[in-house]
Amino acid sequence: MLKGCIQVNSRPNINNTINMVPVDHVARLVAATAFNPPRPAPGVSHLTSHPRLSFDEYLSTLEAYGYEAPIVDYGKWRDAVESYVSSTQDEGREDHAL
């Protein structure tokens, strides 16, 4: 998603929250649950991110790292992606990441 936004020089305005956690945190939880299963059987372990991050906040990191990616309406961003994909073969650009 990040690379796709870089390729079209914009990011969509999406306010949904996303549930992302680092893979090493997931691995620790899986190992801990394997050695200490939740009781009573069948137990369940829940993994959620805290604090929750919105999609807009996540994509805003592009500009923090120096990429030009202004926020635009989702429809305008989608049209830019479609335009990029349709012109990729004509202009010899790399395929779009999305």
How would you describe what is shown here?
49% of the residues lie in helices and 8% in strands. The chain contains 4 helices and 4 strands; from the N terminus they run αββαβαβα. It has a two-stranded parallel ribbon. A two-stranded antiparallel sheet has the order 2-3. The radius of gyration is 19 Å and the shape is elongated. The termini are close together. The model has no long low-confidence stretch (mean pLDDT 88).
Keywords for this entry:
single chain; 98 residues; mainly alpha; 4 helices; 8% strand
Task: Outline the fold blueprint.
Layout: H1 2-8, E1 11-12, E2 17-18, H2 23-35, E3 53-54, H3 55-64, E4 71-72, H4 74-91
Parallel strand pairs: 1-4
Antiparallel strand pairs: 2-3
**Count of helix runs:** 4
Spell the H/E element sequence: HEEHEHEH
Q: How much helix, percentage-wise, in residues?
A: 40-55%
**N-C termini distance:** 7 Å
Globally, the shape reads elongated
Low-confidence stretches are none
Q: Would you tell me the overall average pLDDT?
A: 88
Please provide a brief summary of the model:
The chain has helices at 2-8, 23-35, 55-64, 74-91, and strands at residues 11-12, 17-18, 53-54, 71-72.
